[in-house]
Predict the 3D structure of the following.
Amino acid sequence: MDSMLERNGKKVCVMGLGYIGLPTAAILASRGYDVHGVDVRADVVETINRGEIHIHEPRLAELVKEVVDGGNLHASIEPCEADVFFICVPTPSNSDKSPDLSYVRAASEAIRPYVRRGNIIILESTSPPKTTEETVVPLAVANEFEVGRDVFVAYCPERVLPGRILIEAVENDRIVGGITPACTQHVQQFYETFVTGNVLATTAITAEITKLTENAFRDVNIAFANELSMLADHLGADAFEIIELANRHPRVNILNPGPGVGGHCISVDPWFLAHAAPNQTPLIRAARQVNDHKPHFLVQKIERLVADYRISVVGCLGLAYKADVDDLRESPSLEIVRELKSRLNAEILVCDPYVSPDKFREFSLCPLDEIVQRSELLVLLTDHSQFMTLSSKQLSNKLLIDARGEWHSQDLTAAAQRDVPLATPAASERHAA
Ligand code: SAJ
């Protein structure tokens, strides 16, 4: 539909400048759109208008600087008139696991005065079924407009993996679910101007459920791996070796056990499905419970090891929810450290090279060298690449717990007790040495 010339001058208003909204705004700006980004946080708006960013994501800082300096991206706390509106705000869950749509509601209400005939409104936030139709349409579209004729509304879920957002936002296939076929068609044409993957057309409710299904699928599969790791520990076997061997079967592909499942997506989204259909989702609920239990299981193992070996200094490597990101949302690593700090008598040292001490003030962080030098027990919680470079010499004479199965693949098998340790004679000798 759009040539580069047509894009110039076409205005896009992006509501929410977080992990999805900011990369989306920057990508659109780099493709020639005139992008007005909106965030409720004045500090975020100021940071972006200086050409800087407030989150960590590879290559995003350079891109934002380029498009802000070039005049194609401007941030504000207020929306403005635009041709296309994106809603990219958080959709957390309440304490009873029901979805909290307050940010979607607020963003929809905020754009309503600016929406004109011919405009497109896209919801990208992961949302429970029917949110586009029952929340966005009534709040964002004035009564005088008919959806599908005057204003075009669709749900188009983001599917990007943190750490690869700028690549996946462009290259992944996208799903566009319009409220009507005309909405789908308009929005599909718009995505085709900047996405190189296929843009697949469907309805709003199908797109909403599909997005939740993707993350629930991954959660169930990780839960299987985590359950296996606890089962193997109970029976005195190594889950990582079992998985490695089982995965040699041509039709078996088990994921990695870890300290639990974190991040703002996979640990939250399956509950939206469970909440929407409580009696139809026993497996999805069980998976959530298994993954939520894993951090406590690890804390108990660490506690036992500390008591058995009279350990006085424990080093925890990693706070973020996964490798090479700075995101602490729902992080099992952070949950484990918090629990260890409140339950153990030992000194707990913590290192995370991605977490800035200026932003994180709950407790102080330690340089990696110091942790490696001082800890009697080292626990690998998040598999940041910096931790993969530790040599077997640096890790010798220590008890090790590798919750990710990574040190093993670095050929440290002899030193590392993977996932959940058994107090093997070898470990106790090393500890004594
Ligand atoms: N994890 C494991 N074992 C594994 C894989 C992951 O324990 O084998 C853990 C991670 O350490 C992390 C959590 O699971 O704590 C989630 O990490 P992830 O890399 O699986 O996914 P996210 O949350 O970073 O991103 C997911 C992606 N969804 C899917 O892969 C189906 C991404 O494509 C979505 O766009 C994103 O959720 C989202 O925004 O919904």
In short: The radius of gyration is 24 Å. DSSP finds 17 helices and 13 strands in the chain.
